[in-house]
Write a structure and sequence with these properties.
Chain A: Belongs to the DeoC/FbaB aldolase family. DeoC type 2 subfamily. Chain A: This is Deoxyribose-phosphate aldolase. Chain A: Pfam families: DeoC. Chain A: Its EC number is 4.1.2.4. The complex is a heterotrimer of chains A (about 325), B (about 290) and C (about 475). Chain A is of the alpha/beta class and about 325 residues long. Chain A has a single domain, classed as TIM Barrel (Alpha-Beta Barrel). Helix content of chain A is about 50%, strand content about 10%. Chain A has an eight-stranded parallel sheet with strand order 7-6-5-4-3-2-1-8. In chain A, α5 runs parallel beside α6, α11 packs parallel to α12 and α12 runs parallel beside α13. With about 290 residues, chain B is an alpha/beta fold. In chain B, about 45% of the residues lie in helices and about 20% in strands. In chain B, β6, α7 and β7 form a beta-alpha-beta unit. Chain B is globular, with a radius of gyration of 19 Å. The relative contact order of chain B is 0.17. Chain C is of the alpha/beta class. Chain C contains 14 helices and 18 strands. In chain C, β14, α12 and β15 form a beta-alpha-beta unit. Chain C is globular. The chains are: A alpha/beta (about 325), B alpha/beta (about 290), C alpha/beta (about 475). The interface between A and C is medium-sized, with 33 and 28 residues.
Chain lengths: ~325, ~290, ~475
C-alpha cells in the first residue's frame, strides 16, 4: 500500500470531514500514513543528540528552554501553599538574577488553578491544568468534560487532557477523535475565547512509533493546539525519538494543512543537556518556527533548576551548586 | 550381407539444442590408438558467443530454482548416466585409450561424483553462510550466491570424470556454464550433453562446445558477460593460462587458475570448485517494533 | 534565511595531535629514511602542508617485503594463535586509549568530519582488531584451513585511511601473515601513527611494515615477487591492473573496488527514515564511499514528496570545518578529487539533468563541494553510470519492483544496494534479486567487523570482515 500524507494545501475542514466519516475511513487514513522504522528513528534522534551546543548558542538555548518550561506539580499531596510557591518561582525562577526569564506556564490539577492564578495575576505566565480524569483518563465522558469546564472556569489558560489509550489501542479511533473534539469545545469561554488544548498521548503506553505518528495526526485533526507525550506518571515518559516523531508530525501537518500545532514532551527531561538536545531536534526537524514557547514546551519540574544552574555557570564562569537555587 | 551402420554426427550443445558449429568447421577425433573415430564440431568464437547468451538467459531461472530442485535434477542426470553406462564406458574407453574395465571405473566415479555434488545443492548455503552478530539492532545474514555465467575449460586428459568434476560444482549452486570440452577427447562430453538434454536440466544451463580451448578460451576469458572462468583445461600451459587470466581481468572475472599439471580426478574434491564461483551476499535489516 | 538558533563554533582541539615535520618509512619495526623522494600531505580543509612523507622506492618496498618475510619465517608464523591474539588485543586497546588522537589526526589529514572519525571510523578500527584478535586461536573452526599465506602486500585508499588499514591488517595478522601496507598518498598520517602503536604494543619487528608513497610505490609492492597475497581497496581501474599483473603468479588476490549503488525507495517506505538513509547513503564521508548510495531509485508515485523532503533535509546539513563537532559534511579529500567531482557534475548538467545544491557557505580555502542532487537522470547519463565518489546524488524513478531491480542491476558494479519498504516479503525478494555484495534494507552504510563486505562483478572479489574475511589469508 502506498503510504501517504494528505496532499499539500489540503483543506483542513474537508480533510477532517472526509477521514472521520466512519471508524473505517479514519483507520484507513491513519494506517495509510508512512510507517516509522524504530531503529532509524532512534538513530536519528541519537545523532541529533551529539550536537555540540556551546557559548552563545548554549546561552540562547538555556534561556529559551527556561521560557518553554511548564513548571509542573501533579501530586496527591499538592496544597495551595505548594502550588503558590511554585507559581512564584515560575515568575522569577532565579531571584538572584533579574535577567532570568519567566517560565511559560505552571501546570497543576484543576482544583489548584485558582490558587495559582492569585499568585500569577497578569504576569504573563500561563496556567495549565490537567483535566479529563488525568492521568488514566478512565472516567465517563460527562465527567471529563465537567473536569475541563471547571478548570477553564477557574482561570486555566491551557488544558492538558489525556486521551483514552484503551480506545486507541483497541482501534476505536473515532471515539478518541470525538473525545478530543468535545474537550476542545469544552475549552471555550463565555467571551468566545478558548483555553488552549494540549492532548496527552501517554506514548509509553502506546509503545510503537507508528502509534505515536497516528495518534499525533488523530489529535491534530481533532483540533489539538499542542500534542504532548506523557503524563509523567508512566515510564517511559518523554523520549527524544518519540518527540522527534511528533515533531515530524507537526511539520508534515502544517505542510499539508497550513495549520501549526505545538509539541510538549513531558516527564523524564531533567537536565539542561537533555533540554538542549530537544531544542536541537526542534530546530533541525520541525524548524525554527517552533523554537518559541508558543509552539514548544517542556513539561518538567526538576529540569528548571538544572537550567538555572547551567545558566549561572554561563554568566559567572563558575560551576554552581544546588543550594543556590530554590527547591519549590 | 553386413548392414551399413548409421554413423553419428557429433554436434555442439547450446541452449538445449544440438547445432553444428556456425563456422561449418569440424575436426577429426581419433581414438587412443590413433584411429579415426568421428568428426566433431569445431566450436568458433561465435558459437562461444551464442553459448554465453544462452547461459545468461538461463541464469535467472536456474539460480532462482529451489536448491532442492537443483539437487533432484543433478541426481536425475546421474540416474540417466547410470542408465547409459555402457555407452559412456565405450566413449571413455575410446577417448582415453583404456580398456573397458578401467573405463567402467571412470564412469562409476563420474556418476558418484555427480551424486556427491547433487547433494551439496541444499547444504552449501548452510556450510558457507552464517548469521553475523553485529553490534547493533540489526538482523544480518551472509549467504552464498552463484556468481553468474561461468566459462569452464574442461580438463584435456580426463574426458568424463574431469568434465563432471568441473561442471557439476559450477551448476549445482545455480551458476550456468559454457564448457569447452577436451579437444582431443570430446566424445564423452558429447554423450554427456545428450544426457543433459534428456534429463531435466533446462536448456542453456550447461552449454558444451567441442573444440580448442586455446582458440575459444580467449574469447570466453575476454567476454564481458561472463562472470568467471575455470582454466583447468589449460593445465600445464602457463603462457596460455596467463594470457587468459589477463584477459579475464577486463571485467574482473573470478578465475580458477590452471594447475601446473592436471590433477588426479579420483581424489575426493574439496569445496573449492564450488566456492570459487560463489559470491557472498550480506543483508542487513533493523530489528525493531 | 538566518536561524535564531545558530550553533556557535565547537571545534575539537588539535592539541592532542603532534604532527612531525617529516616522516620516514616503517620497516622492520623502525622508522627509517626512504631511499627515494618525498611528498607533502596537506590538510584538505585548509590546504596547509602537514608534513613531508617519504615516497617509497622499489628498493624501499623490497626492504619492507624482506623484513616482513623475515618476521614471518622467524617469529610470526611460529607464534601460537593465542599469542598473536594477545598482540592484536593489545593493539585494539591502545587504539581505544588513543582514539581521540587518531580521530583528530584522521580528520586533519583526510577532511572528514570529526563526528565521523570519532564516532564511526576509530571505534570501528578498534572493533575490527578486537574481532580478529579473537579469531587468531580459533582458526580451525572457521573452515578455511589454518595455514597462513606468508607476506601480504596491502594497498589502501584515502577515504577511510585507518579503517581500511584495520580491515587489511587485523585479519592478516590474526591468520599468521605479516604485512607490508601502503597507505594512500593523500592520507598517510594515521597509518604512520598506527606504526607507533605497533611499537607501543611491542609487536615483533617486521610483522607490520608501512611504506608510504603513490601509485608507483603501490605497483612495486603488488608486483614484488616476494609477496604471497595482494589485498587492494581502491578504484576499479587499478583493480583491473592488479588482476592483470598477478596473472600467472600464485599470488592470492582480494579486490574491493568501486560501486554505483542503487538505493531503492518504494512507496510504502518509512519515509523519514528513508530520507535519512538517502542522506547517510550519499553524504556520509562526503560521498567518498565505494558503497555510497549514489543512485536513488524512487518509486514514481512518491518521488516528488521524497525529493522535497530530501532537499529540506539537505538544507540542514552543516558543511565546513572538519574539526567542528557539528560539521556533517567535511572537505573533499584532494584537489584532484574535487576536479573529478566538478567534471562529472558539469557533465550531468550538460547531459540535461537538473542540479540542486544545498544552500551553504563554503570556506574560501580548501577543497569543497556542496551536497548536490541531480534530478531528471536516466540510466543513459554518465552520472548514473560512473562513480563520482563525492557528495553528488543521481535520482531516477521507477514504476514497478521489476523495473527497480532491473535498473539497480544495470551496472557493471555490484558492491552494495539499499531497499526501503515496510513490506517484509518484498525486502526479501528484492534483496534476493539484487546483484550486490551488501544489501541494506531499511538502513544504509552500516559496517561491523562481524559482517562480510565486498562486491559482485566489477566491484571486485573476496570479502573483508566476518568469518568470511579470514578466507583471504588462509589456505
Amino acid at each position: 500500500m502506498t503510504a501517504t500524507y494528505p496532499a499539500r494545501g489540503a483543506d483542513l475542514d474537508g480533510l477532517v470531514a472526509d477521514v472521520t466519516r466512519s471508524d473505517a475511513t479514519l483507520r484507513r487514513f491513519l494506517h495509510g500514513l508512512p510507517g516509522v522504522d524504530q531503529v532509524g528513528a532512534e538513530a536519528r534522534a541519537a545523532a541529533l543528540g551529539t550536537r555540540s551546543i556551546k557559548t552563545t548558542a548554549k546561552a540562547f538555548a538555556l534561556d529559551l528552554a527556561i521560557r518553554m518550561v511548564d513548571l509542573t506539580t501533579l501530586e496527591g499531596q499538592d496544597t495551595p501553599g505548594k502550588v503558590r510557591a511554585l507559581a512564584a518561582k515560575a515568575m522569577r525562577p532565579d531571584p538572584a538574577d533579574p535577567t532570568c526569564p519567566s517560565v511559560a506556564a505552571v501546570c497543576v490539577y484543576p482544583d489548584m488553578v485558582a490558587d495559582v492564578k492569585q499568585v500569577l495575576g497578569d504576569s504573563g505566565v500561563h496556567i495549565a491544568a490537567v483535566a479529563t480524569a488525568f492521568p488514566s483518563g478512565r472516567a465517563a465522558m460527562d465527567i471529563k468534560l465537567a473536569d475541563t469546564r471547571d478548570a477553564v472556569e477557574a482561570g486555566a489558560d491551557e488544558i492538558d487532557m489525556v486521551i483514552d489509550r484503551g480506545a486507541f489501542l483497541s482501534g476505536r479511533y473515532l471515539q478518541v477523535f470525538e473525545e478530543i473534539a468535545a474537550v476542545r469545545e469544552a475549552c471555550a469561554r463565555p467571551d468566545g475565547t478558548s483555553a488552549h488544548l494540549k492532548v496527552i498521548f501517554e506514548t509509553g503506553e502506546l509503545q510503537t512509533y507508528d502509534n505515536v505518528r497516528r495518534v499525533s495526526w488523530l489529535a491534530m485533526l481533532a483540533g489539538a493546539h499542542f500534542i504532548k507525550t506523557s503524563t509523567g506518571k508512566v515510564q517511559p515518559a518523554a523520549t527524544l525519538p518519540v518527540t522527534l516523531v511528533m515533531l515530524e508530525a507537526v511539520r508534515d501537518f502544517r505542510e499539508a494543512t497550513g495549520r501549526m500545532v505545538g509539541v510538549k514532551p513531558a516527564g523524564g527531561i531533567r537536565t539542561a543537556k537533555d533540554a538542549v538536545k530537544y531544542l536541537v531536534t526542534v530546530n533541525e526537524v520541525a524548524g525554527q518556527d517552533w523554537l518559541d514557547p508558543d509552539w514548544f514546551r517542556f513539561g518538567a519540574s526538576t529540569l528548571l533548576n538544572d537550567l538555572l544552574m547551567q545558566r549561572t555557570k554561563m554568566t559567572t564562569g563558575r560551576y554552581s551548586g544546588p543550594d543556590y537555587f530554590t527547591l519549590d | 550381407m553386413t548392414r551399413l551402420d548409421v554413423r553419428k554426427t557429433y554436434k555442439l550443445y547450446i541452449d538445449g539444442a544440438f547445432p553444428r558449429s556456425e563456422s561449418g568447421h569440424s575436426y577429426e577425433v581419433l581414438d587412443g590408438k590413433g584411429r579415426f573415430v568421428a568428426n566433431a564440431a569445431l566450436a568458433s568464437r561465435k558459437d562461444a558467443r551464442d553459448a554465453v547468451v544462452a547461459a545468461r538467459k538461463a541464469f535467472g531461472g536456474w539460480s532462482g530454482r529451489t536448491a532442492y530442485n537443483r539437487a533432484q535434477i543433478l541426481y536425475r542426470v546421474a540416474e540417466i548416466m547410470e542408465d547409459r553406462r555402457p555407452q559412456f564406458v565405450d566413449a571413455v574407453a575410446r577417448a582415453e585409450g583404456i580398456g573397458d574395465g578401467p573405463a567402467g571405473k571412470v564412469v562409476d566415479a563420474s556418476i558418484d561424483r555427480l551424486v556427491w555434488y547433487a547433494g551439496w545443492a541444499d547444504k552449501i548455503t548452510q556450510v558457507l553462510g552464517n548469521a553475523n552478530p553485529v553490534a547493533g539492532p540489526f538482523f544480518n545474514l551472509s549467504t552464498p550466491e552463484p556468481t553468474g555465467v561461468v566459462a569452464v575449460l574442461a580438463p584435456q586428459g580426463s574426458s568424463l570424470l574431469g568434465l563432471v568434476s568441473t561442471v557439476a560444482p559450477v551448476i549445482v549452486t545455480g551458476n550456468t556454464a559454457v564448457v569447452v570440452s577436451s579437444y582431443a577427447r570430446p566424445l564423452p562430453a558429447v554423450t554427456f550433453s545428450e544426457v543433459l538434454a534428456t534429463s531435466d536440466v533446462p536448456g542453456g544451463v550447461v552449454n558444451i562446445l567441442t573444440g580448442d580451448a586455446a582458440t575459444v578460451g580467449p574469447w570466453l576469458a575476454g567476454h564481458m558477460d561472463v562472470n568467471a572462468i575455470d582454466l583447468g583445461g589449460v593445465a600445464g600451459r602457463p603462457a596460455l593460462a596467463t594470457e587468459l587470466e589477463v584477459a579475464a581481468a577486463d571485467n574482473l572475472k573470478r578465475v580458477r587458475r590452471a594447475p601446473a599439471a592436471e590433477p588426479d580426478w579420483t581424489d575426493e574434491p574439496d569445496l573449492g570448485a564450488m566456492t570459487d564461483f560463489l559470491e557472498t551476499k550480506t543483508v542487513w535489516h533493523p530489528i525493531g517494533l | 534565511m538566518s536561524n535564531v538558533f545558530e550553533y556557535a563554533p565547537a571545534p575539537e582541539s588539535r592539541s592532542i595531535v603532534e604532527i612531525k615535520p617529516s616522516y620516514g618509512l616503517f620497516i622492520g619495526g623502525e622508522f627509517v629514511d626512504g631511499g627515494g623522494a618525498s611528498f607533502k600531505t596537506v590538510n584538505p580543509a585548509t590546504e596547509e602542508v602537514l608534513a613531508e612523507v617519504a615516497e617509497g622506492s622499489s628498493e624501499d618496498v623490497d626492504r619492507a617485503v624482506k623484513a616482513a618475510r623475515r618476521a614471518y619465517d622467524k617469529v610470526w608464523s611460529k607464534l601460537s594463535g593465542a599469542e598473536r591474539a594477545k598482540y592484536l588485543y593489545r593493539i585494539a586497546r591502545i587504539i581505544q586509549e588513543r582514539s581521540r588522537e587518531l580521530a583528530v589526526l584522521e580528520s586533519i589529514d583526510n577532511g572528514k568530519p570529526i563526528k565521523e572519525s570519532r564516532d564511526v571510523d576509530v571505534p570501528l578500527v578498534a572493533a575490527y582488531f578486537f574481532y580478529y584478535a579473537g579469531w587468531a586461536d580459533k582458526l580451525e573452526y572457521a573452515g578455511f584451513g589454518t595455514t597462513p599465506l606468508g607476506v601480504a602486500g596491502q594497498v589502501i585508499p584515502w577515504n577511510f585511511p585507518l579503517l581500511m588499514l584495520a580491515w587489511k591488517i587485523a585479519p592478516a595478522l590474526a591468520c599468521g601473515n605479516t604485512v607490508v601496507l601502503k597507505p594512500a598518498e593523500t592520507t598517510p598520517l594515521t597509518a604512520l601513527l598506527f606504526a607507533e602503536i605497533c611499537q607501543q604494543a611491542d609487536l615483533p619487528p617486521g610483522v607490520v611494515n608501512i611504506v608510504t608513497g603513490a601509485g608507483a610505490t603501490g605497483q612495486a609492492l603488488v608486483e614484488h615477487e616476494g609477496i604471497d597475497k595482494v589485498a587492494f581497496t581502491g578504484s576499479t581501474a587499478v583493480g583491473k591492473a592488479i588482476a592483470r599483473s598477478v596473472a600467472g603468479t600464485r599470488k592470492r588476490v582480494t579486490l574491493e573496488l568501486g560501486g554505483k549503488a542503487a538505493n531503492i525507495v518504494f512507496d510504502d517506505a518509512p519515509i523519514d527514515q528513508a530520507v535519512e538513509g538517502i542522506v547517510n547513503g550519499i553524504f556520509f564521508n562526503q560521498g567518498h564511499v565505494c558503497c555510497a548510495g549514489s543512485r536513488l531509485l524512487v518509486q514514481e508515485s512518491v518521488a516528488e514528496d521524497v525529493l522535497e523532503r530530501l532537499k529540506r533535509r539537505m538544507a540542514t546539513l552543516r558543511v565546513g570545518d572538519p574539526l567542528d563537532k557539528n560539521t556533517d559534511v567535511g572537505a573533499i579529500n584532494s584537489a584532484a578529487q574535487l576536479a573529478r567531482i566538478r567534471e562529472l557534475s558539469s557533465v550531468g548538467e550538460a547531459e540535461g539533468a537538473e542540479a540542486w545544491s544545498a544552500p551553504c557557505d563554503l570556506p574560501s580555502t580548501g577543497f569543497w563541494f556542496a551536497p548536490t542532487v541531480f534530478t531528471g537522470v536516466t540510466q543513459a547519463h554518465r552520472i548514473a553510470r560512473e562513480e563520482i565518489f563525492g557528495p553528488v546524488l543521481s535520482v531516477l524513478t521507477f514504476r514497478t519492483p521489476a523495473e527497480a531491480v532491473e535498473k539497480a542491476n544495470n551496472t557493471p558494479f555490484g558492491l552494495s544496494a539499499g531497499v526501503w519498504t515496510d513490506k517484509g516479503s518484498r525486502i526479501l525478494k528484492i534483496a534476493d534479486k539484487l546483484r550486490a555484495g551488501v544489501v541494506w534494507a531499511n538502513t544504509f552504510n552500516k559496517f561491523d567487523p562481524t559482517s562480510p563486505f565486498g562486491g559482485y562483478k566489477e566491484s571486485g572479489y573476496g570479502r573483508e570482515g566476518g568469518r568470511h574475511g579470514l578466507e583471504a589469508y588462509l589456505r
